[in-house]
Amino acid sequence: MKVIICGAGQVGWQIARQLSGEDNDVTVVDNNPNLVARATDTLDVQGITGFASYPDVLEMAGARDADMVIAATFSDEVNMVVCQVAHSAFSVPRKIARLRAQSYLTAIYSDLYRRDHMPIDVVISPEREVAAAALNRLQSPASFDKESFLDGDAQMVGIDIPEDCPVLNTPLRQLSELFSTLRAIVVGIRRDGNLFAPQPDDQVYAGDQAYIFTHTEDEARLLEIFGKHPKKQERVVILGGGNVGLAVAKKLEKHAWRIRAKVIEKNRVCAERAADALERTVVLHGDGLDQELLNEANVARADAILAVTDDDKTNILAAVRAKSAGCAMAICLINDPSLVPLLSTLDIDAYINPRATTVSSILKHIRQGRVRGIYAVGDSEAEVIEAEVLSTSPIAGEHIRDIDWPEGAIVGAVKSDGKVIRPSGSTRIHEGDILAIFTLSADVSEVQRLLQVSVDFF
Asked: Among 81, 201, 225, 293, which is disulfide-ready with 53 (CB 3.0 to 4.6 Å)?
């Protein structure tokens, strides 16, 4: 597949890394020569320096025979023009644009992106994706990561293994025997900074981070087995009243159980906008690092602080200060992945990586076969691929144990005839089944080959 990626920032670079590693023909376009040089020096991609919205620049990038254009520059308007030029001048079949401004995303203007208006096939909103991820973290205080799959019937939860975990030093094979009715399977373990797909004889140790697939109905039991006892969130302090913080506060106001939220925003205009948009949420204007303001927000009695400003260091310092004051849980928005290893030593419970959430959103519109969703794990160290099995797939009709899975791939859950089951070696994969597969990044292309439809299907 020939792909042009416009914008070589964090998201563009990550998408280029993923696609070029899967033998796609990738060209990166950016008007910053340093970003282009970084991409071409570190990745197997071609680079063009220039303004991505210019037709001659897109032509140099190979737009005439491109399969897809991904517009991920810092400007919404440039991303829109890129898609328009790619469609009108070069008839590029598929166009994806990242748009930040909420005005462009209002439902009443959805007709704007029709092919006979402004032809954008997929619109990605980072703020909405990040707000959804933040809300997910708040609702799962016992886990540092969580994502839903199989129409919400299955969850992948990431949990830190504590010293008092009841199942320490127990082979995973034995766990399945001890809890035979528990619909759960450990698909990934991060130990000493390295993520791997475990074998049946592997064990979990204190200090590990485990990624576990479970049926939604069994999640509470799973957490209890691994020594986690989550507390219901009732008081939340949100640091940052921009698009992300405001979206989370609005969702919390509509929550089934009453959650008392307070928003702290440094910018007066943003604070006033948030106060006007929210009904029951208290909005405080001031610096979230100010101890007096944190005391006014009663952070010491809060069940969680969610720090989602656009400054990583502010998020981290505010979270540390809140935890030291007695806040039960701290969640940070972190743009710089190099800061992530510091979080555990600073007693920060969970983080949100906006790049990973945006990359996940874009990847699910790129993968081949009948892919329903993609979720990037960690700093894109692994992916969870949710896909439907078609009749022409090499795995249709096979038992899981007879399929030549790559070493870094594990089937986490199977939905067959509307029911979610815990997969085992004897599970037969049928046409129409939906699989959720955890796979290390190096093995994505091989898993994709197993899922890919053949030409005669069409």
From this structure: 81
